[in-house]
Amino acid sequence: MKMKQKLILVLMVVALAQAACGTFEVAVQESVPTQVATLEGACPIPTAETKLLTNAEDGYCLLYPAEYSTTIPKYIVINPISSPGDIPGDAWLYIATAAASGRTAAQIADENIAALGEGFNITRFEVEVDGEQAVVVDGLPSLDSARNVFIVHNDRLYNLIFMPWFPNAAELTSLENLYTMAMDTLHFLPQE
Q1: Cβ–Cβ < 8 Å for 147, 125
Q2: Which of 2, 21, 44, 142 lies at a CB distance of 3.0 to 4.6 Å from 185, suitable for a disulfide?
């Protein structure tokens, strides 16, 4: 009987130590076969062709193609360039976060568009990402042509910026694939 109590005590200490050290993952079997359950929520499961990017501090996770780089914080880079310069690679996704201050994604997108005034060729449409309204805006001026996706979750703004975004360009295929994968797999986590 004492041996059983000691074993239970040791197992409880190990479980508490794992919880204190951070996230532990448990594959969810039947209810959600394409996600991993964590202490923070459910993230998509990576495959041989994809990797999982998790940012617990900013409260999100998503899949991206395995051959891309995430060595620069908050960036997913296609064909990274190792030499110093102004661009991290051929194309990239940058994920910026900030307080939404009670505004919706539509309000934030409209504010960005209105601040420019007239004369810009801007397109705007709405989609849903992980159950939240998202506003996709093409044509906002920046260092390069960009597609901005504005999403608000728990009063936090997530701005996904895909660059360089040249609509209808043949070389855009890799960035379009990254866009589709990020939008389909983005999942919000409780923020740390």
Answers
A1: no
A2: 44
